[in-house]
Amino acid sequence: MLQIDEKITAIIHRFNLNNYAFSKRIGVTGTTIDSIVNGRPQKDGSRKKTKPGYDVLLAIINTFDINPDYLFGKSDVMLRSDITSIPTYSGMPQVISTTIEGNENVVLVSTKARAGYLNGYGDPDFIETLPSFKMPLLTNGTFRCFEVQGHSMVQTFYNGDLVFGKYVETISDIKDNQVYVIISKHDGVVLKRVINHSEGDKKLILKSDNKDGNYPDYELATEDIMEVWQVTMYASKHISPPIDMFDKLQELESKIFNIEHKIQKH
Asked: Quick one: pLDDT at residue 139?
């Protein structure tokens, strides 16, 4: 990581200035800047660099529109104007679909629509292109339906299932070990079981129900999150086979029936 004197040197070079011209721009002497970036000569022939004071740093930030986090080692972005604007999490979806009567519809985000949803979740024109319908059982909230893609949640949800999510108003409302659909800047649309560390570490831990070793847990920074939907209901074409205990009970019942039938014959 660059030291503060190296960062000030980088700013001087960024604006094609020398130390003297830079000092005049921020209202200090050339000696002040030279002592910061080159150091003051010492008796033993070495140079000791001076730490810039608050007034010098503030003048640099304001004069050249410098990102303060760059100077203090929290960011690699030098200029404020180069900082990418990150949308803040909203207490309501940016776009909802309603009936003519004003009642909210459930919008369906199919597998094919997933890629477009990341860029279009806040675009009314895009949302209007998605299928929407009314679900009488889903009330008291805003709901969205997502088609499950992949096998990371097998044991609970299967590829092609439909999950119905209720919009989560604040990230702090996310409950540990519940299943959510999360839309984030880098991962797009994912369905995961979640552990919430948003209050302290500003992150979520995303977990898969499929434990075959191909789907490790991973972290997601809360600043990357666009939307969160808590899964409250699902529809599936997958009908699970009976569990082993049920098979054994059926086999036992069959044997008892056969024995009773033989007894009745005698």
From this structure: 82
